[in-house]
Design goal:
The chain is built from five helices and eight strands. The chain has 230 residues and is of the alpha+beta class. A hairpin with a 4-residue loop joins strand 2 (52-61) and strand 3 (66-76). The longest helix is centred in the C-terminal third of the chain and has 17 residues, at 207-223.
Length: 230
């Protein structure tokens, strides 16, 4: 895909918060995208000692969800684990992987939060702004907000509310399976985010994220495969 500008990443939580507040001004929540063919999913994994991170990206084509491209990158972890600031820990390697993609996805899914975040600027929002592409957060657990339980069937959802504002959807992607926490990242509406997540779900999580997770788990196993003398 086109070159992704590498930002200067802060090394402290205070500096990271200033970056979130500044970049949040560039966040756009709209009605699009209307046409989506290529959907990218991004996920990451860490080495057992927590010092190395792998980021994987898998791209599928709609409507059949055929895999069309993958990319990955690895690097040293430069930022501590602090809830609400995971984009500073994971973002640099995600952008490295994105620069290695041979195609330009129409839509990005991230295993994390979008605007359902204490400062309204989670991983999916942050990376969506830096990539300047429509993006959606697809998290397995709730970071902020309150909600009622959605119905038990695929497509049922309930609003995720933070201080009375709708910041996401608690979406059932399969019958009688735990829901996903879907939130807008950048350049997309919540209704569109829910629609495209469902279009990409065979299992609980969207297929691009599931394939990205398989990719990085395979890379991690290859790197840390036990030697015969162990």
């Amino acid at each position: 895909m086109a070159a992704v500008r590498a930002p200067r990443w802060p090394s402290t939580v205070r500096a990271a918060q200033r970056v979130q507040i500044a970049l949040r001004k560039r966040l756009s929540v709209g009605d699009g995208p209307r046409a989506v063919r290529l959907v990218a999913g991004a996920d990451c994994a860490f080495s057992p000692d927590g010092q190395t991170i792998w980021a994987g990206i898998a791209v599928v084509a709609l409507p059949g969800l055929e895999p069309v491209a993958t990319a990955w990158a690895a690097g040293r972890v430069r930022f501590p684990y602090v809830p609400g600031y995971l984009s500073f820990r994971e973002g640099p390697v995600f952008l490295q992987a994105a620069r290695r993609l041979s195609i330009r996805p129409d839509l990005w899914f991230f295993d994390g939060q979008g605007i359902a975040h204490p400062r309204g600027f989670g991983l999916a929002a942050h990376l969506g702004v830096l990539l300047d592409r429509p993006s959606v957060g697809c998290a397995k657990s709730r970071l902020v907000g309150e909600h009622r339980q959605p119905g038990a069937h695929r497509g049922d959802w309930a609003p995720l509310l933070l201080e009375g504002k709708r910041v996401g959807a608690v979406l059932r992607t399969r019958d009688h399976v735990r829901p996903l926490y879907v939130s807008v990242g950048h350049r997309i509406s919540l209704a569109a985010a829910v629609r495209w997540v469902l279009a990409c779900c065979i299992y609980r999580v969207p297929e691009p994220i599931r394939l990205a997770e398989q990719l990085i788990n395979r890379l991690k196993r290859e790197r840390f495969h036990a030697r015969p003398d162990r």
